[in-house]
Amino acid sequence: EFKGSSIRLLDADTRSLQSGITTSDAVLEETAETEFVLRGAERYVPRLEQLALHEVAPSRRTLETARDSSNFAVTMTGPGTIDNIVLREIADPELAPNEVMVEVAAVGLNFRDIMAATSILPDELENDEAYWRNLGLEFAGTVRKVGDRVTNLKPGDRIMGMGKGYLRRFAKIRADLAMRVPDGIDLIEAATLPTAFLTAHYALTHIGRLAEDETALIHLASGGVGLAAIQVAHDVGARVFGTAGSDTKRAFLKKWGVDEVMNSRALDFADEVRSLTRGRGVDVVLNALSGNGIDKSLECLAPFGRMVEIGKRDLADDKPIGLRSLYRNNAYSVIDLSTLPVEREKLFRQLLAEVEAKVAAGAYKPLEASRFPASRAAEAMRMLSRALHIGKVIVTFDEPSVDIELDLGAQFAVSAQASYLVTGGLKGFGVAIADWLSQKGAGTIILANRSGVPDAEAAAAIDIMEQRGTRIIRAALDVTDAAAVDRLIEEHAAGDAPLRGIVHGAAVIEDAFVSQLDAGKIDRVLRPKITGGWNLHVAVVEHDVPLDFFVNFSSIAQVIGSSGQANYTAANSVLNAIATYRRGRNLAGSSAAWGMIAGSGFVARSEAMTNYLDSVGIKPVQDSEAAAALSYLLRARSENLGFANIDWAAIARTNPGAATNPRISPLLGDRTGGRSRIQTELAAAPREAWDDLLADMIRREVAKVLKVEAIALADDRKLSELGLDSLSSFELKNRVEAQVEVDIPVAKFLQAPTIA
Ligand SMILES: NC(=O)c1ccc[n+]([C@@H]2O[C@H](COP(=O)([O-])OP(=O)(O)OC[C@H]3O[C@@H](n4cnc5c(N)ncnc54)[C@H](OP(=O)(O)O)[C@@H]3O)[C@@H](O)[C@H]2O)c1
After folding, report:
1. Which residues of 180-205 are buried (b: 16+ CB within 10 A; e: fewer)?
2. Contacts from 488-495 at CB under 8 Å and sequence distance 24+?
3. Do 600 and 622 contact (CB within 8 A), yes or no?
């Protein structure tokens, strides 16, 4: 409100005041800082930090697997880059009567996992079942529990199978979809079997109908499906040709008994096939090549030849093929194993039985594999994404101890045998909070305002909570009345449903510019928040109430400043201080600074206020979502947290005071004034310098993707030689796009694979 003047806050202790220089420095210094804490010779300045919800309490623990049977998953904080892989504690699976819980020994990774992790599977990203949260399509492990109706398996049985979300210590599978692992194959080896052999067996014997006197051409034969297909073809008695993309891989295939080995990266394999077969061609092609590789493979078909497609890219791109290539009684079939369990369950079960029998008979053997323990799952994903491996890449769950993130959201619990007080709970956002407590299983909720009477919306919500079985007490309580607060707390301090949590949401809003504020406006806004909060604190201390939480409701206005709300921000600042004061005394204490709440509360009731906040970059968060965020905020290590949806670029535009304040600018992170680091650099530099700046930025991002030193990356070095392939290109694309905010087709990264 006072743009021309500079106001500084100083918090000095006696020692710092004695060394007067520091103090006058803080007052007179030419600096953008506006707040200082002086402690002796030390000077502290505040900085805000922006975190995703699950990061607010990044508590981790070491899980000793021998002693602790907690579950954890290899999952992601979000899709886009493999860097986002984390190990996180999760609940045990809930078993349906026909399911078993399996302790996973190892998981085979598949390209679909990489595609999900790097967001190439966009359709599946939206809901809770998002693929990137549930990586791992196949496993081998030991049955630990069985559902009530399971008769074919018992605890201790060794099984393998496929599905979704197996990159976790304890998972579940329908008992009739599991295959047994025979004695003599260890579980880690067994994890190489399911998808590779189910795919190869289905492709070659069912769809390809490969016969004893025939020849099969297996593309990318050194991969998981490829190596399995060689075994399947040999089991049938067929002759096998194979292609692979490197000398090492081709040498490996020769050792493995592939009759003829060719290069998958050159298109002359078709000529080679023709000359090796005296112009006749092969009977079955198992294809995973894309583009021209498809046309060339079709050229390899003998009369009555069958091509079985397991690639996806050209189907998605709707690549045309010439029908003449099928002229001589040929067939071109596409298979996608992942749809079988849903759309052809009987056939899928038949495949499971056939592969299980072949494995038991020793006809299908575990594949060559690279192994990584779960704590190094990201490395495993990178290896697979760069296609440097032979056979399978396996993630094992055999470490004696693993460092995992705690699942704070799931761990926050309220009790059915306790009561919880929500001040301001008979109207507005407090009702949404009460509903959340009720859904979490709170036994009794005391909702208080001055009259004890809910408004119409609250009354309807209370009906629902009561139907759910929550006991609701409507209390007439003026929180500014210390004696009344004391009586209410005393009444609920002990007994059948002792008080265990307080949400202090009572508030009166009377916005006015500083020049218009009078004693009444200040008093009416400050008292319910400050006096009310303090009265609650004094009463719970007085009656010795051991609270699990005591949270004051503050506002983002307090965090970034807000014209016309000096009284409100002052009140909220004191609520923060009360939370800090309580924490300092080892008592439960938090303050939650909310952004714009949609669905209920004083902002939602005012269209003008909603539009204004939206225009300055404070975007709505649904009340139920905000309430659910409390699960995290209340367990966080820091007592003063905000939860808001903010468009920082808009804040920087409309609130220059906030954007230039060093307390807030870290929130803009690499995005000073709404811009990324590179955007700021470009804006400040002459046109001639842009190429170098952009090259530096790309070099930094390449270094992150390829996990190499940026300094070692020459501009003209081919990125493909450093390991950049189609999948890591996607990761690079995501990163570069985030910096420059321009859509870049991934082909650009593939076509011009140098930094220059
Ligand atoms: N809504 C938002 O977008 C938003 C954003 C940031 C922060 N917040 C914070 O969230 C809290 C709830 O906001 P809201 O939007 O739900 O406000 P609201 O709808 O105006 O509700 C405020 C409640 O406080 C009660 N109250 C006021 N003075 C009281 C007193 N002396 N004793 C007991 N109760 C009293 C009011 O009831 P009576 O007047 O009937 O007593 C009313 O039920 C506030 O602390 C607010 O600062 C809200």
Report:
1. bbeeebebbbbbbbbbbbbbbbbbbb
2. 488/421, 488/446, 488/448, 488/539, 489/536, 489/539, 489/540, 489/542, 489/543, 489/545, 490/539, 490/543, 492/419, 492/421, 492/446, 493/540, 493/543, 493/544, 493/545
3. no
Distance 549 CA to ligand 1 centre (A): 19
- DSSP-derived 3-state class of residue 533: helix
User: How far apart are the CA of 529 and the centre of ligand 1, in A?
Assistant: 9
Nearest CA to ligand 1 atom 26: 506
- One DSSP character per residue, 270-333 reads HHHHHHHTTT--EEEEEE---THHHHHHHHTEEEEEEEEE---HHHHTT----GGGGTTT-EEE
Return the pLDDT at 635.
81
528 CB within 6 A, ligand 1 = yes
Tell me: the pLDDT tens digits for 304-322?
999 999 988 888 889 999 9
Smallest CA-to-CA distance from 727 within 381, 280, 454 is with 381
Neighbours of 679 (CB within 10 A): 18
CA of 528 to the centre of ligand 1 (A): 9
Distance of CA 296 to the CA centre of its chain: 41
Q: Could you report the per-residue pLDDT of 29-70, keeping only the tens digit for each?
A: 777 888 888 888 888 888 888 887 777 765 678 999 999 999
161-201 per-position pLDDT tens digit: 999 999 999 999 999 999 999 999 999 999 999 999 999 99
Structural contact between residues 502 and 549, judged by C-beta atoms closer than 8 angstroms: yes
pLDDT of residue 2: 73
State how far the Cα of 28 lies from the Cα of 26, in Å rounded to an integer: 6
Q: What is the 3-state secondary structure (H, E, C) of 363-400?
A: CCCCCCEEEEEHHHHHHHHHHHHCCCCCEEEEEECCCC
Distance CA 713, CA 719 (A): 9
Please report where in the chains the tokens 């399996």 appear, as a residue.
Answer: 102
Contact 426 CB / ligand 1 (< 6 Å):
yes
Quote the mean pLDDT of the chain.
90
Is residue 630 a contact partner of residue 40, using CB atoms and an 8 Å limit?
no
Testing ligand 1's pocket by substitution, the residue of 594, 603, 630 carrying the most ligand atoms inside 8 A of its CB is 594
Ligand 1 atom with least separation from CA of 597: 3
> Which has the closest alpha carbon to 566: 113, 639, 574?
574
User: In the chain, what are the domains?
Assistant: 9-44 (no CATH), 61-193+366-405 (3.90.180.10), 195-342 (3.40.50.720), 412-600+623-643 (3.40.50.720), 675-751 (1.10.1200.10)
* 389 has pLDDT over 80: yes
Q: Which atom of ligand 1 is nearest to the CA of 451?
A: 40
DSSP-assigned states of every residue in 88-145: EEEPPPPPPTTEEEEEEEEEE--HHHHHHHTT--GGGSSSTT-GGGS--SEEEEEEEE
* 244 pLDDT tier (thresholds 50, 70, 90): very high
pLDDT at 95 over 70: yes
Q: Is 424 in the pocket of ligand 1 (CB under 6 A)?
A: yes
Q: Are strands 215-218 and 282-287 parallel, antiparallel or unpaired?
A: parallel
CA atoms within 13 A on the CB side of 139: 28
pLDDT of residue 543: 97
Give residue 508 CA to ligand 1 midpoint distance, Å: 6
Residue whose CA is at the smallest distance from ligand 1 atom 32:
478
Flag whether pLDDT at 613 surpasses 60.
yes
Is the CB of 524 inside a 6 Å radius of any atom of ligand 1?
A: no
